[in-house]
Write a structure and sequence with these properties.
720 residues; alpha+beta; 6-stranded mixed β-sheet; 5-stranded mixed β-sheet; 22% helix
Length: 720
């Protein structure tokens, strides 16, 4: 029995996911089974996965159903739709003089080297120094050359120089990673990745036909992918985000149908002369094919216009000789005719091609043939002919995917991760030039250190080979030591002075400034530093150099914040004496001087009020029962936070205070009781009279300074 190779491929489209199984033997392919499941929700948009979980569920369902008939499926070939597509050409030339004849593995290595070169070019054009943000999703060989002459195949050839020119297509990392994530959730490994236009063109337009200028358009639900051939090769790839869904939405709008019913109606139009639909209002209506086409004609024109404009631009602003249409969207009514009109081509030069156009292919009888099967079949076949296999290696815990060639090294992985090789080794320490007291001094640097490379937690080198799943850790080498020299190492011995500060003796050393900032002698030197070394000349410089900043602070004016405004009270500030005489902070000093700092003291609320000329209280002298008495009312109230302060409460430097001026009210007789205690005589009966200056008064009558106030109690009546 012949050994047949089983191929499993998925076409993950905007509208549905198609799984297909082929058997391959001696370049002959047989479609064994096919299963398509539509998305239940809009999990795809313009060919890109937007809901990984939803897509992975459909993939899992397809996988499980196919496994029931065909056994376990572990690996799958897939294609990307081409959203945000980037296309680039690249050529690699190698010296083969004196080497064994070229083998298939050697050619693959050259091709993938060219792909990596193209990847760098894409990065430079679209995102500088970020080639690792793009993944290659397919490539086609344009030419093989041997010693400068074009040749059909390099296998078993010998000469001096061999070259390969390719055209490669790239997608942003996020597009490919979402595809891989969906496969992993379905327990599938991506065996190979290609691009949908590559998949279709490889099975419909073999190399022998590529000397013709032909456009292939794969019209799906969300995107229309385009590939162009000419002069024996594929010259360009492109994509427009307009496809079959545009037509479905037009039918939905015109016939008042929900989207699934509109999709069904669109498919019936391809085979029926009339369709019967039930709109959202419940009315059943029959439409002729011509009536529906007339209503959705603007949408068909927009689809044709978008496709033709992209073909025209990709083809050097001219129409191709012919156009092939594949994919489910290609069956849109009158689409081939309108594309022909817009490209000025005869109608018979634009045609829908189905799987019957694929050479060396047979298909199981149970499978319905149609243009929508071209791409999934092409994916399986193209992924075998021009595969892009990936090896996943983790660099500093981040996954990096590389082209699987005969030998991949640690260095290859670092490049793919975007790590610049010239930045791995520490920079040599550059010579430092500093200025010391106006004189330039040159300080030589040291060599940089090597990087630390670990593979699976073991030390490795850049040329060590890596395998799928290896864990790499990269720690850049240390830069050359250029900053280990301290300022004190540049200085000779400097003069010292001795002073007494508040009875304690201090040695005054040189003050060192680095770029105008006072530093200690232990500070490291930096390139272009301007260093000045001088002994302190004023008292404040002495205190700062001795780190006696609290004394400097104590000599600053006494400060409080009153009602959100800063208030300075120099009278209560600290005082500075040199040899018994009061001086200022900026005064000079001499060797053996005695310096005394009297720190600022707290003040009372009364002192602050006097300084701010605020009256705290209003007093009134009166006489009560013949005794002189002073009544007092608060008219200015100070607060610290929520605490009311008394006259004798202390205020510290930096306190935040508020004050409130109260409205003055005249004293009344009743205010007297806040300052005296009145006791009723033992023989009094409880009745009393209030007298002011011997005249009867009341509790609420106003009193004035010098008034004589009395409370007269009535005696008890004699007992009977």
């Amino acid at each position: 029995m012949l050994d047949k190779k089983k191929l499993f491929a998925l076409d993950i489209g905007t509208r549905s996911v198609v799984g297909i199984i082929l058997e391959e033997h001696n370049q002959q392919y047989h479609v064994v089974d096919m299963l398509a499941i539509e998305h239940s929700e809009r999990a795809m948009l313009d060919g890109q996965i937007h809901d990984v979980l939803s897509v992975s569920k459909i993939i899992t369902e397809i996988k499980q159903q196919l496994e029931k008939k065909h056994g376990p499926l572990h690996k799958v070939s897939v294609a990307a739709a081409g959203r945000a597509l980037r296309t680039e050409r690249a050529e690699v030339i190698i010296d083969i003089k004196g080497k064994p004849m070229i083998q298939k593995e050697d050619i693959l290595h050259i091709e993938l080297s060219a792909v990596q070169k193209a990847q760098s070019s894409v990065a430079e054009k679209h995102d500088e120094e970020r080639s690792h943000y793009y993944y290659c999703v397919g490539y086609s060989v344009l030419y093989y050359r041997l010693d400068g002459e074009e040749i059909g195949n390099l296998i078993d050839q010998q000469g001096d120089e061999a070259s390969v020119e390719i055209i490669a297509t790239f997608l942003p990392k996020v597009v490919v990673e979402s595809l891989i994530s969906a496969l992993h959730r379905a327990n599938l490994e991506m065996e190979a990745l290609t691009l949908e236009p590559i998949a279709a063109i490889n099975v419909l337009i073999p190399p022998t036909m590529r000397r013709l200028n032909v456009a292939l358009v794969d019209i799906g639900a969300g995107t229309s992918d385009i590939a162009l051939t000419d002069s024996g090769t594929v010259i360009a790839y492109g994509m427009v985000p307009v496809a079959g869904d545009e037509i479905t939405e037009a039918i939905s709008d015109q016939l008042l149908l929900d989207f699934p019913l509109a999709e069904t109606a669109k498919r019936e139009l391809h085979t029926n002369d009339s369709i019967t639909v039930t709109d959202i209002l419940g009315f059943e209506t029959e439409f002729s094919k011509s009536d529906v086409i007339a209503q959705i004609s603007p949408a068909i024109d927009r689809l044709a216009e978008s496709i033709c404009e992209e073909i025209y631009n990709l083809n050097g602003h001219k129409s191709p000789k012919a156009v092939m249409l594949v994919g489910g969207g290609s069956q849109t009514p009158e689409l081939p005719k309108r594309i022909a009109e817009k490209l000025n081509l005869p109608e018979n030069r634009v045609a829908i091609r189905g799987i019957d156009a694929i050479q060396s292919l047979t298909i199981d009888e149970q499978i319905t043939k149609g243009p929508e099967l071209v791409t999934p079949i092409g994916i399986a076949i193209a992924a075998q002919k021009t595969p892009v296999h990936y090896v996943t290696v983790y660099v500093n815990e981040q996954p990096v995917r590389l082209f699987e060639v005969k030998k991949l090294t640690v260095g290859d992985c670092l490049l793919a991760a975007g790590i610049k090789m010239n930045k791995l080794y520490g920079k040599p320490g550059l010579a430092m030039i500093v200025t010391l007291n106006g004189q330039q001094i040159t300080i030589p640097g040291e060599h940089g250190g090597p990087p630390k490379l670990l593979k699976n937690e073991s030390i490795c080198s850049l040329d060590d080979e890596v395998q799928n799943g290896d864990q790499l850790t990269v720690v850049s080498g240390a830069d050359g030591e250029k900053n280990t020299l301290q300022i004190k190492e540049l200085l000779d011995e400097v003069p010292r002075k001795t002073v007494s500060i508040n009875g304690e003796e201090y040695q005054i050393t040189t003050t060192i400034t680095q770029n105008g900032k006072v530093v200690s002698p232990d500070v490291l030197i930096e390139d272009r530093d301007s260093i000045e070394c001088k002994i302190p000349e004023t008292i404040d410089e002495v205190l700062i150099s001795l780190n006696l900043r609290d004394l400097v602070q104590s000599l600053k004016p006494f400060r409080v914040t009153l009602d959100h405004k800063e208030t300075f009270l120099p009278t209560f500030s600290g005082r500075l004496f040199r040899n018994g005489m009061e001086v200022k902070l900026h005064s000079s000093f001499e060797h053996l001087d005695e310096i005394v700092v009297e720190k600022k003291r707290p003040i009372t609320v009364r002192e602050l009020a006097e300084k701010k000329q605020m009256m705290l209280n209003h007093t009134l002298p009166v006489f009560f029962n013949g005794q002189e008495l002073e009544l007092k009312k608060t008219i200015t109230e100070f607060r610290r936070k929520d605490q009311i302060l008394s006259e004798e409460d202390t205020i510290q430097d930096g306190d935040v205070l508020t004050h409130q001026q109260k409205r003055f009210k005249p004293f009344i007789f009743q205010d007297l009781f806040n300052f005296v205690e009145v006791e009723m005589p033992a023989r009094a009966q409880g009745n009393f009279r209030l007298l002011k200056n011997n005249q009867q008064t009341t509790f609420y009558d106003q009193i004035d300074a010098g008034d004589h106030l009395q409370i007269v109690w009535e005696n008890r009546k004699s007992e009977a």
